[in-house]
Every structure is written in structure tokens, then in C-alpha cells.
Design brief:
Number of strands: 13
Structural class: alpha/beta
Strand content: 5-15%
Strand order of the largest sheet: 1-3-2-4-12
Order of helices and strands: HEEHEHEHHEEEHHEHHHHHEEEEHHHEHH
Shape: globular
Number of helices: 17
Distance between the termini: 10 Å
Length: 432
């Protein structure tokens, strides 16, 4: 797969989910979670966008991860050292670029990686096969599918990331509208809002691909023929552009009819361009990830009834799941200790701690926590095993990042045909 320019999407997924204050711009820093006095000299290094916890800074995602790492340290008598990196305003190398470089040079043991990097490094044989871990036996099928490259399970997450459509139920009720299931129903809702002088959808430059992916792959992932369809795409027998076209035509119609502000979306970071309008009840719908419904700094404390549903598709409301995950370098200097540490980090005990702290969907089929009321519609679909993978390492063409970038082309004025030609070009590159 050909890498795109350094300002691409991938840093946004991990950093948006973790919502962390990271290290100094462009620097790599090493920290260990605990004071090492009296502890074993056995060390496992973790390359991650998150630092160790600071006593005066409360962050739920960070404390959840720290709790599980503390468990691994205590059980194994090791120290986990964090190596962290961030780039200022995407002007330097992205987190993903640095992760690729470090993994290719065996600089760390454990890595927290975005899906396209998992796919690249897995395809290069640089990640350890984790299928032999006891914890791997407890993983949901969707997690195994998303993180398997060339028959090897190369990454395991601590949560299943799910994107949904966040809706102001009260604005729908005021307009006597039912929450939409299909693209046609969605466009009708948008028409009604627009006629009342309301811009229906608040958007940013990162997450509009969720509409495309939901429509493109609703049948592929829910029609009972997933493996065969992916094999046809990987061989070139089928074209990604044929799957993508309906979703891009859908977005083009939304742009043409003024249902989204394409110019604003193109220059807006995640939540920057739409969050305030949604909270002020100026727009009835935005896109976001599961954890945003739990976080007061995002959408966890609205003044109205909010519901989170799947994106419109031919099979109804469709959750979209990209995947991040922990991976171990195939030639890691402390590979055995890293493997033991990851066994604990992804054990049901640790995942229960993580899920209860963050109130997220666990990758383990044995771990469940009660979600907030607003997430119940989305959660119901997931429990029915209805979803679309926004990232799937078994597909030769990386999905989430490439779709995001080509959607940006559409926002910038490219035609649907030009966007489809870009998919055809990228697919051709994967075949050679």
C-alpha cells in the first residue's frame, strides 16, 4: 500500500480517542509508570501517544490504560517504559511515520498502532503473531478479523472503537421526524431540516468517510459472503470503486443540497467545526466515536436528549468500527516479557478494569459493561453483530485513511468520477 502525505488522518484516531496532553512537539521521551526503586531491572518499552499519568491531571482514558499496565508490572515484576511522540500541527513527522520507523528498526517492544500501520508492519512481517496468547481465545470475531494479516493475529486492542451518528432527538421530535435507517430516509430528514433553515449535519475533515463506509460495506460484512468478497477485491477481480460509488454519490448530494457545509468541513479538525453548533442545538446531527458520549468535554453532558445511532445503509442503522491495537515487534529485544505483559493487558481481568473505567466495548466477548442511555441504539446493533469494519488488515487496500483523504478531495471540489479513479489507482498499486 502506498503511504499518503504526512498530514493524513491517522494521528487523529489515536489522539482523539485518548484525548491526551502529549510530550513536547517533535520530541521522543521515555518515562516509566512507576518509581523503579526496588523493582526488577526487567524493562518493556512501549511506544505510544500517551504519557504516564500526572498526579494533577485527570484523564479517564489514560488512567484506564495505566491501571492495566500497573497490573502487568505488579504480576510480572517488570517496568513498562513509555516512549511518546507527537508532532505540532502535523508540521513534523506524524505519530504513524515515527511508529513505522521505530518498528522497522526494532527500537521498542510494545507499540500502540493505528490500523494502517498495523497493516503495513504486519505485511512486512515485523509484528509478532499473537494468536497463541490465551487472551486471544476470548476475542470477539470482529477484533480477530480486523487485526489478522497473512493469517497472523498481529495486534490486540483494549477497546473496540465504534463510530456512530450523534443526533438531537428533541430536534427530530419537534419536526415530527423518525430517526433515519436508510440513505433515503436520512436525506428526507435533511430536507425537512433544511426547509426550516437548519443545516442538518455538522461535519469535519476527518469523519465523513463513516457515511461512505457504512453504505459501501453493509452487504459485504452482513451478507454472509465476507471472505469471498474481500478475496475478490484483493485479487483485483472486484473493484473498490464499485463499492464506494454509492456512498460518494450520497455525500455529493448532501453537498449539492446544502445539507453539509463542505467548505467549513474541509478546514475543520475533529469536533472543532461542529461540536459547539451541536451543543447549541444549531445542527441536529454530528459524527463521533463511542467514547465521546461518555466524556463531558465532548458530548457527554448535553442539555437535550441525545441518541447515538448507526449510519444510514441498505441494512439499516450501521455502526462503523476502525481498530487501533497493541502489537509486539517480531524481533523485540524484550519480546518474551512484552508477550507476557500483553497477555495480562488483554486478559479478561485487565479488560474488565479498562471497560468499567472508560465504559467502552471490550474486545473480549466475556467482558461487558452497561453503556450510557444515549448509546443504547448503537450498542443494540453491535450486540446483534451488525457492523461495518472501517479498518480491516485483511484488505490489501487500507480503508479508513484512504477513504478519508478521498472524501477530502470531494469536499474540495473533485467529482465522484475523479474520486473513483483515485480508488482504482490505489487498488492497482496494491496488485504490483
Amino acid at each position: 500500500m502506498k503511504r499518503n502525505q504526512a498530514d493524513r488522518w491517522t494521528a487523529a484516531l489515536l489522539t482523539a480517542l485518548l484525548t491526551l496532553s502529549l510530550t513536547a512537539c517533535g520530541d521522543e521521551e521515555t518515562n516509566n509508570l512507576l518509581n523503579s526503586e526496588g523493582r526488577s531491572d526487567r524493562v518493556v518499552t512501549l511506544f505510544s501517544p500517551m504519557e504516564k499519568s500526572q498526579p494533577d491531571k485527570e484523564n479517564t482514558a489514560r488512567s484506564a490504560a495505566d491501571k492495566t499496565i500497573l497490573l502487568a508490572e505488579e504480576v510480572l515484576g517488570i517496568r513498562v517504559e513509555y516512549i511518546t511522540y507527537t508532532a505540532e500541527n502535523y508540521q513534523e513527522k506524524t505519530y504513524d511515520d515515527v511508529a513505522l520507523d521505530r518498528a522497522r528498526n526494532n527500537m521498542d517492544d510494545l507499540y500502540l498502532l493505528n490500523p494502517d500501520v498495523i497493516q503495513i508492519l504486519g505485511g512486512e512481517g515485523r509484528l509478532m503473531d499473537l494468536s497463541g496468547l490465551e487472551s486471544a481465545k476470548n476475542l470477539r470475531d470482529v477484533v480477530v478479523t480486523a487485526n489478522t494479516v497473512d493469517g497472523k493475529l498481529v495486534a490486540i486492542p483494549q477497546e473496540v472503537v465504534v463510530y456512530g451518528l450523534f443526533v438531537n432527538k428533541e430536534m427530530f421530535d419537534d419536526c415530527e421526524l423518525e430517526l433515519p435507517n436508510t440513505p433515503e430516509e436520512f436525506l428526507e430528514c435533511c430536507r425537512v431540516f433544511k426547509e426550516k433553515g437548519i443545516t442538518p449535519v455538522g461535519a469535519n475533515r476527518w469523519w465523513l468517510e463513516t457515511f461512505v463506509l457504512a453504505q459501501a460495506y453493509a452487504d459485504l460484512y452482513n451478507g454472509g459472503n465476507t471472505s469471498a468478497e474481500i478475496a475478490a477485491l484483493n485479487s483485483g477481480e472486484a473493484k473498490y470503486s464499485d463499492y464506494m460509488r454509492p456512498g460518494f454519490e450520497f455525500l455529493q448530494k448532501m453537498i449539492d443540497l446544502g445539507y453539509i457545509d463542505a467548505e467549513k468541513a474541509l478546514v475543520s479538525e475533529a469536533m472543532e467545526g461542529e461540536r459547539d453548533d451541536f451543543l447549541a442545538q444549531k445542527v441536529p446531527m454530528v459524527m463521533a466515536y463511542w467514547g465521546a458520549a461518555n466524556t463531558e468535554t465532548a458530548y457527554g453532558a448535553t442539555d437535550f436528549e441525545m441518541q447515538v445511532i448507526g449510519f444510514p445503509s441498505s441494512r439499516g442503522q450501521m455502526p462503523v468500527m476502525p481498530m487501533t491495537g497493541f502489537a509486539i515487534g517480531a524481533e523485540a529485544a524484550h519480546g518474551e516479557d512484552a508477550k507476557k505483559a500483553l497477555e495480562i493487558l488483554t486478559s479478561d481481568e485487565a479488560l474488565q478494569i479498562y471497560a468499567e473505567t472508560n465504559r467502552v466495548i471490550s474486545p473480549s466477548k466475556n467482558v461487558a459493561v452497561e453503556c450510557v442511555a444515549s448509546l443504547k441504539p448503537l450498542n443494540d446493533r453491535i450486540q446483534e453483530n451488525v457492523y461495518v469494519l472501517g479498518a480491516n488488515a485483511s484488505m490489501k487496500l487500507e480503508q479508513w485513511g484512504n477513504t478519508c483523504l478521498i472524501v477530502r478531495d470531494l469536499l474540495g471540489g473533485a467529482t465522484v468520477d475523479e474520486c473513483m479513479a483515485k480508488f482504482d489507482q490505489l487498488q492497482e498499486e496494491t496488485l504490483h
